[in-house]
Amino acid sequence: MKDRTKFFAGTGLLLAALVLAVILNIPTGGTQVVSFPSEYNGTPVTLQGTYSPGSDYAVLICPGYSCDRQKWRPFMNLFAVNGYAVMSFDYSGQGASSGTIGFDNAKTDAIPVQIADAVEELHRLSGIDYDHIILVGHSMGGRSILRLLYDYNSPDAQTTVEPRQVRAAILLSPEVNYEFNAQASLFAGTSDASEEPWKSYDPSCIGSTDVYLYGSTGDDIVSDEDVLAIFARIGGEDVPESGCYSDTQYNESGSIISVGVVSGVLHSYEMYSPKFAALVNDALADITGKGGKYPAKELSLIYVMWFLGLAGLGLSLSGANGSQTWMTEQEFPVLEDPGAFLKRKVLMWIPGVIAAVLLCCVCVCMPFGSPVMNIPYLCFIAGYGVVMLWAYRKGTFPGVKGKLPKPGHRTLSKKDLFVSLGALTFYCFAVWYILRASMYRLIPFNARLFWVCFAAVFMAIGYYVSGVENDMLKAAGASRKVKLLYNLNQYVPLLLLVLFYMVLKSYSGMIGQVQNMLLMYIFCIPMGDFLKMKTGSRLTGAVVTGFLFQTLMITSAALISMF
């Protein structure tokens, strides 16, 4: 396929994905952005939410860890199209809300307070009584709702929320782990089997609130054993230890307790699952006494849009870069021995890791607050880049003749400037919008733009060295095998994270890192290469690549994030 054909075919697919994203993001029921205050331990924050008016019942959606309210738009529509008032919001430090969020998932004291404040705001906005308010939560959101019900109903409550009796709680794989789970234990820092209030959680903790518990045998974070253990603790009788199961009972307090365990849905993708949408819809019908609609086709279109966008990005940028003129006017080292070059590249990860650890310590200790991105990955790229920069400046790198050139550029014509800025703006908007509307857990900047810029600058060092090396390989006519081995070496940090998630048996995390690699390969690096060619500046391409990677990927659901 010729470059021009690739470009136009890819752009067409990308526009089709963008149109689907726009359609899927059309709000239902006249949504509006709302903000409200919350305070915990004397620290005030402003929380951002999205509200859609309705009548009869009001629904509050509580997202999971590192997942902002935008990911729950299909479920917001589920409730809005049935005529109910619905609101979702971002916890402090997530999405558009101010403040920070940390690893205090063992107690999650602050988040139940924020959910309680959101309940008050939903009551104020909708005018609907508390006994007609339904709480919906996934993962940490579900855990925090269970904790809030405890604080609503127990004299031993550790927070100061005012006692309330909400109508019902619909919980999708609430992250309460009575069985050992490596990743969940890393988050919580303790086992829930020995931690208060979870070890003594019983039917009295939920008061008169009806609870609907749903999970999956394929969940890699909250096992089906844990979902059934929660069900048993709130009053379920004759509950099996594991497996697909469905039952509705009454506990000793007279509350409805219902459980449903389905098969084959990973934890991070339950909010995109038609199976879970159907379960939530069934619970809604049981609570309100009338059936409803759920967006099964809409949820399926999310997957279509995601892969359509990937294909369009890859083809479009491949076609655009294939027609670019290579920068022969700039200096670069000469590749003389590919084998020696590749061996030393691999060995350079040893001092690179040492530099990464030191840089990580500097980042954490800086007086600007802790960064939100995935610090280990940032420091891997930056540390390795600094070490490679030092080695090249010495001019004695094995298999290579010459030193690393200083950053250069050429004077841009108005046409090239317009094309560069226009392409960057279009592609960034398209990718951001498609990610925002698809199966991807993207956290917006919030007040953390400083760290995004800080990380991009440091990562640019590594990407600058990589840009020079790619020019060097191209000039030497390197074989496909050499280029493949070189690229695999460049992906060491992401491959290590994939292995790390594999050890934790977090298949959701593994898929997330594969998504990161795909996006880096088909968008971030090609976009940086495009601007490098247009501007004649490797440094410009490196900064753009680093910035795009930080804003689109490192801010997504990072397991080792530091807040």
Walk me through this protein's architecture.
The chain is α/β, with parallel strands linked by helices and 563 residues long. It is 51% helix and 11% strand. The protein has a 9-stranded mixed sheet, sandwiched between helices. It has a two-stranded antiparallel sheet with strand order 10-11. Helix 4 links the parallel strand 5 and strand 6. Helix 8 (296-322) packs antiparallel against helix 12 and helix 16 packs antiparallel against helix 17. The longest helix has 29 residues, at 507-535. The protein starts with a helix and ends in a 9-residue tail after the last helix. Residues 369-373 and 556-563 have low confidence and may be disordered.
Specify Rg, calculated over alpha carbons. 26 Å
Distance between the termini: 46 Å
Strand order of the largest sheet: 1-2-4-3-5-6-7-9-8
From the spread of the alpha carbons, the general shape counts as elongated
| Low-pLDDT runs | 369-373, 556-563
List the helices and strands and how they pair.
Blueprint: H1 3-24, E1 32-40, E2 43-52, E3 58-62, H2 73-80, E4 85-89, H3 110-126, E5 133-138, H4 140-153, E6 168-172, H5 182-188, E7 210-216, H6 224-233, E8 245-250, E9 256-262, H7 274-288, H8 296-322, E10 334-335, H9 338-347, H10 349-365, H11 375-394, E11 400-401, H12 414-437, H13 449-475, H14 480-490, H15 492-503, H16 507-535, H17 538-554
Parallel strand pairs: 3-4, 3-5, 5-6, 6-7, 7-9
Antiparallel strand pairs: 1-2, 2-4, 8-9, 10-11
